[in-house]
Amino acid sequence: MTQLSDTILAPHPFGTEITEQQLIELFQQCKLWEDRYRQLILLARKLPTLADELKQQNIEMPGCENRVWLGHQLRPDGHLHFYADSEGRIVKGLLAVILTVVENKTPAQILQTPLTELFQQLGLTQQLSGSRLNGVKSLINTIKDIARTYIQ
């Protein structure tokens, strides 16, 4: 969904109430993978479930093991709002991490954001299965593609 609107579709706390710095500090306290896993589940719980009318086929990510929806809207101030959901708890937690970093940024800022490095910094890259890591890369590429559409 790409309409220009003052009304935020599917608001969430990521990138506003929960910042990138808070995420980094939270995950730095995790010494074991189980602790990181638990944090992802807690983040997933803070990401509101998308309303059924927003779970449109055009925003559903193809090829994911769990169903994943990633939508966006361009705000009148030129910043992007992203909203997302997944049927899988871990995937939903990973979405929350991504939303924290891209929410309310301009397309140019998003393209300059090193998203994959954040997953390494949080200690998640080493622990994710190959298919989950590919899913994360696909989400990141989709977000960057969305940002590019507003720059060209």
From TrEMBL:
Fe-S metabolism associated domain boundaries: 25-145
Pfam families the record matches: SufE
List of catalytic residues: 64 (cysteine persulfide intermediate)
Top-level taxon: Bacteria
InterPro entries linked to this entry: Cysteine_desulfurase_CsdE, Fe-S_metab-assoc_dom
Membership in a protein family: Belongs to the SufE family.
Protein name in the entry: Cysteine desulfuration protein SufE
